[in-house]
Amino acid sequence: MMIPRRSLLGAAAFAAARSQAQGPAASDKLNLAGVGIGAMGAGYLEACASENIVALADVDDVFAAKTFAKYPQAARYRDWRKLLEREKSVDGVIIATPDHTHAEIALAAIALGKHVYCAKPMTHTIEQARAVTRAAREKRVATQMSVQSCASEDACATEEWVRSGALGTVREVHTWSDRPVWPQGMVRPERAVNPPSTLAWDIWLGSAPKRPFHPIYHPFNWRGWYDFGTGALGDMGCHTLHIIFRALQLPPPLSASASSNFTMIPASSQEADQPWMRAKTLKTPETFPHASSVVWDFPGGVRVFWYDGGWKPPRPQLLDAEAELPRTGLLFVGDKGTLLSGFSGGRSRLLPESKFKDAPPPAKTVARSIGHYQEWINACKGGPAPNCNFEFGSLLTETALLGVEAIRTGKTVRWRS
């Protein structure tokens, strides 16, 4: 199976992509709008509260009630399209809706010249990621994808250790997550449920295939369904892929392949013994598996492994006998040493510890961030492009989605131009 491939931006192209965006003066406050404000969007808005929050949109009056109340001065909408049509003063749009609606909202905002902050992954498909990136480049708007760890000290320190040469040549990297923390491996419920009057279900669906409302989809469990989410890998993969790409200076991968564990379960316990549920377990499922692993092959013989659903890499022989692998982690394996990264909190370990216990930390060659959200705010006002702007964010998103396609199809998926 073939998926188009594009090359990683070279230094000159990346510098050009970071060219200054036109916007308000640095001393002025931005007028920001939030779309999808009931969960992660509330946190994004709070992190940008130094600016003016002038408009909010959410399809669920109840789920978004606390955020609406926190910004009483902001105009309220259910339909984000009406927000963009009417709120002419908006400088930037913060998108925190389910994955399947990221692209259509981002493209509409960018077409109006609005700066965009978007939840990860940027989009639901690779084609969408390229379209959004191309549009942002043409409109020269400031962009940022919500990979907060791009701005972390742990990420910078990990990159410096790998690039220092202390590990020798690294051709194998393992990363794993404790996701999913939502149900997967389900079949579609047949029992119809009327959506509450406080929810605009048709707007929530957006361009996804039409289906009746069911509480198994909203407000949280949509991530496990193919039509709406991108599973554990789409949710969390970008949080470690960025360190791998930058530490090893990798181009895009050549291919991805996957293994997964499917044990189909009904969407609700009331339907557990129904004949339709048992019959549908034999057909193509609509949700991601309970657990999966992916391997990406890169030019130069580098292999990157992903694990979720409780699966982890083999325990390094060099790790102390009493030590366990953390719930989430990142492991760089070199021919001179191994680094178990503490990017998600906790202490990084250089293995064997007997060899590296007195090793001084490498020089701080990676520029530190002014703060993930402040990067975007400054870019909207004409500053440099953020660390996870859409040029880089698209590479992360496309790589994760290449793995997602391998999980869904069970085939080796190749990247081509």
| Number of DSSP E strands | 15
Q: The biggest beta sheet, please? A: 9 strands, mixed
Shape: globular
Oligomeric organization of the protein chains: single chain
Give the CA-CA distance, first to last residue.
13 Å
Strand order of the main beta sheet, please?
A: 1-15-9-10-11-8-12-13-14
Number of helices: 14
Helix content range: 25-40%
Mean pLDDT: 89
Q: How do the strands and helices of this protein lay out in sequence?
A:
Elements: E1 2-4, H1 11-17, E2 31-35, H2 40-47, E3 52-57, H3 65-70, E4 75-77, H4 80-86, E5 92-95, H5 102-111, E6 115-118, H6 126-139, E7 143-145, H7 153-163, E8 170-176, H8 201-205, H9 231-236, H10 238-248, E9 255-261, H11 275-280, E10 291-297, E11 303-308, E12 329-334, E13 338-341, E14 349-351, H12 353-356, H13 372-380, H14 390-409, E15 413-416
Parallel strand pairs: 1-15, 2-3, 2-5, 3-4, 5-6, 6-7, 8-11
Antiparallel strand pairs: 8-12, 9-10, 9-15, 10-11, 12-13, 13-14
Helix pairs in contact: 5-6, 6-14, 7-10, 10-14
Structure description:
The protein is an alpha/beta fold and about 425 residues long. Helices cover about 30% and strands about 15% of the residues. It is built from 14 helices and 15 strands. The strands form 2 sheets. Strands 1-15-9-10-11-8-12-13-14 form a 9-stranded mixed β-sheet. Helix 2 links the parallel strand 2 and strand 3 (about 50-55). The longest helix has 20 residues, at about 390-410. The protein starts with a strand and ends with a strand. Mean pLDDT is about 90; it is low at about 5-20 and about 270-285.
